[in-house]
Amino acid sequence: MPEHDLRLELLQAWLQEQLLNLFQRNAWGDVPAGTLTAASSDASFRRYFRWQAGERSFVVMDAPPPQENCAPFVAIDHLLASAGVHVPTIHAQDLARGFLLLGDLGHQTYLDIINPENADGLFADAIDALLALQRLPLDAALPSYDDALLRRELELFPEWYVGRELGVSLSAEQQASWQRVSQLLIDSALAQPKVLVHRDYMPRNLMHSAPNPGVLDFQDAVYGPVTYDITCLFKDAFLSWPQARVEGWLGDYWEKARVAGIPVQAEFEAFHRASDLMGVQRHLKVIGIFARICHRDGKPRYLSDVPRFFAYIDEVIVRRPELAELGSLIAQLQAGR
User: Fold this and answer.
1) Which of 32, 63, 315, 335 has the greatest count of CB atoms below 10 A from its CB?
2) What is the reported pLDDT for 45?
3) Would 1 be classed as within a structural domain?
4) Residue 181 sits in a domain of what CATH number?
5) What does pTM read for this prediction?
6) Exposed, middle or buried: residue 239 (CB in 10 Å: 0-12, 13-18, 19+)?
7) Exposed, middle or buried: residue 258 (CB in 10 Å: 0-12, 13-18, 19+)?
8) Residues 331, 224 share a domain
9) pLDDT tops 60 at residue 321
10) What total number of domains does the chain contain?
11) Residues 198 and 174 grouped into a single domain
């Protein structure tokens, strides 16, 4: 932790006050001397600390305004909990300063422990939790994954990856090609049935816990395409799986979703195509985000995962001829590197 960290000092003072209140409310006795250690940070401005004393452990979120806003996290936490999704209990909050005191869902993410042998069981649990999330009625005050949001996300690719990372500008012909591809991906997404979408439902944000999984990082949830989260789960930023296994897991989800009354596509091939195109939209967005994090925020480490996303896109282009124009555009950009 930084030697002179004013926010950390403010957070520690707030934490001591909240722990005192929490221990008094629950008749746990005096607050013991605990340790506060860095738990994690992510690609945003948020960071997390773990307070631990004996068997008691809590997580403290530091989400500095104006860059971050805790209110969506709090609202969606309550929403998901109402559906039986295992999310952190919010013990205390200071939205004005961006501090939350949360229950601790454990030390191990899916990303930490998943392997070819245990993946079936872990993903089965993740699918069940996702179905609970998707069964929620569409009546909360959440934004929609609309044309404007989908297009804004896609434009991160030419703006930050092509323009800043590659240092080139698209020609008029390439720009026209890009717009046609973008429209294809947007039309496919908007044609899908809508459910609650987590937007980052991936192993890094799923905790190995009881009940399993614990779900984190849901504050950007929207109402949007039914294939979004399940595609995100299996085509992760940090690990890849053989296509045969991914298709098997997608099939498992599709069958369970139909039984659960989730509005998935009636035919698996239509569902699979929608998942493929949804994935490409997300992968292009993430490539742009990783370039932005490097060039705007000074965090270059995420760029090392960009080849994984191009591999995901290439895999889809092979079986989806309607994306041949995207394949040609990417080939031109890579040839010019």
Assistant:
1) 63
2) 81
3) no
4) 3.90.1200.10
5) 0.93
6) middle
7) middle
8) yes
9) yes
10) 2
11) yes
pLDDT in tens, 158-213: 999 999 999 999 999 999 999 999 999 999 999 999 999 999 999 999 999 999 99
CA angle 90/204/92 to nearest 5° reads 10
Do 296 and 179 belong together in one domain? Answer: yes
Same domain, 77 and 99: yes
Please give the single-letter amino acid code of residue 273.
Answer: R
In whole angstroms, what is the distance from residue 230 CA to residue 197 CA? 10
The verdict on whether omega for the bond into residue 32 sits within 30 degrees of 0, i.e. cis, is no
Whether the per-residue pLDDT at 1 is higher than 50: the answer is: no
Give the domain-ending residue among 72, 103, 134. Answer: 103
Are 136 and 91 within one domain? no
Nearest alpha-carbon partner for 74 in 110, 63, 66, 21: 63
| Residue 94 domain boundaries | 6-103
Do 167 and 143 share a structural domain? yes
Is residue 94 one of the residues assigned to a domain? Answer: yes
Amino acid at 176: A
Given a contact cutoff of 8 angstroms between Cβ atoms, the answer to whether 316 and 323 are in contact is yes
Q: Are residues 135 and 88 in the same domain?
A: no
Taking a C-beta distance cutoff of 8 angstroms, is the pair 104, 131 a contact?
no
Q: Where would I find the H helices in the chain? A: 6-25, 71-82, 110-113, 119-134, 147-154, 156, 172-190, 228-234, 243-260, 268-295, 306-319, 324-335
pLDDT for residue 44 is more than 80 = no
Alpha-carbon torsion 257, 72, 200, 215, what sign?
A: negative
* Distance separating alpha carbons of residues 216 and 201, to the nearest angstrom: 9
| Cβ neighbours, 10 Å, residue 66 | 7
